[in-house]
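Course assignment 3, question 2. Fill in each field.
Student: A.L.
Task: Predict the tertiary structure for the chain below.
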Amino acid sequence: MPFESSAAAPQPTPFAPPTLDITVGSLISRTFGVWSHTMWKFLGFTVVLFLPVIAVAVVMGVGVAAGGGESLRGNPGAIFGGVAILVPLLLLAALVQMGGVTYGAIQELAGRQVRFGGMFSAGLGRALPLIGAGILVGLCCMLGLVLLIVPGVILGCGLSVTFAIVVAERLGPIEAMKRSWALTGGFKGTYFLAAVVLGLITLAINFATSLLGLIPILGQIAAPLIQLLFMSLSTILPAVAYHDLRTQKEGTPTAELAKVFE
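Answer field:
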């Protein structure tokens, strides 16, 4: 089996099972625990995924520079064309990254090796359902925010583990959304507070890296890499939440959750 250990390559120690109560503190602590063990693998995976997006952006920038920097002015068609190419590429890379990191987080929680091949397989293999889920979840949350803001927040928390379910349970977008809503019952407030705490930490990191970016050359190279390094946190949190909810509410062992990737 592809994820079994060998004498030459000892497996990582499985994470301790979640405590009886899933709290804001436990979610944040376990999120950073998974991230600290896998951050370099997630960084490499993320960099490889976003290289095509960066390459296209650079090529388009070179094209504009070759045109004297004025070619886009008064040319909405060129602007629309650039957006039409870059935005889908960016969204696809982000969703594949989400799928791969979700796989990696569940493998890490199970004490199994996190492999690049597995991350790409999980992300690319579930790309279409992830795209569908991204569109539907985004529309639901936008509609809720337009109505009175609070419904959008509630919907966002209730649908927070949709992407993890799409990857780990191989459900379609609508089924995964229903499952997420049911699984997060009685938990939405806890997840909201955990997301707020993580958001504040991320804002502080982004502020620090923006200051670092002011340093000529070295800072301008290091700042984007640091942001990419911490990018996986926003995906690890719902993966940890999904894992802990399955374990606590349904008594599903972590090893069972990871078997889907074999």
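Instructor remarks: Residues 53 and 87 are 9 Å apart (CA to CA). The chain has one domain: 24-261.
Grade: pending
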